[in-house]
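Side project, low priority. Logging it here so it doesn't get lost.
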Amino acid sequence: MSSPLQKALVFKFLSRTLAYPNQAFIPTLVEVSDEIETGKEERQALIRAFELEETEPLQAEYTRLFINGYPHTACPPYESIYLEKRMHGDAAVAVSAAYAEWEMTVEPGLIDHLSTELEFLAFLASAESLDNAVSKDAQKASERFIRQHLCRWVPQFIDDLKEGAKMDCYRKLGELIEQVLGGYCGGK
């Protein structure tokens, strides 16, 4: 990624792709995507894939993949579930401590949700763009957070998403997350 601000926008875009697909979903993705200088083709292909789906089936697929699929949820986007097989585990406590170091608070149910973790990385990347001591601290915190958190569970999440998705848009989302985080997590 070309600059810390561009990195922040990429993390923000990925965070938004994990939102519930309501009427604001596509316009929000387009708005954030338009600000990013690189990788436009992949993001546009993803947005087009989302646009091809009807709203209700897209919402049903989102729910099945991330919230409460039957007989099991394919890929619940929570670090604690992947690492500890339960909600609000030690991973959530560790993530919350990382947020607290930067004076951020998050709703308890969303602490270790992938969207929230990506939003935190967007915040840190924005802080990296400052021309002061905070910049280096933010860069180190970002690298540490990715290594200690995302790289431990997101590769499996990506595999589960690509395998479990019935809609092309969510398979493409898995591929895009893999492409962005792959450089940080040793190929995946």
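Brief comment: The chain has a mean pLDDT of 95.
Revisit when time allows.
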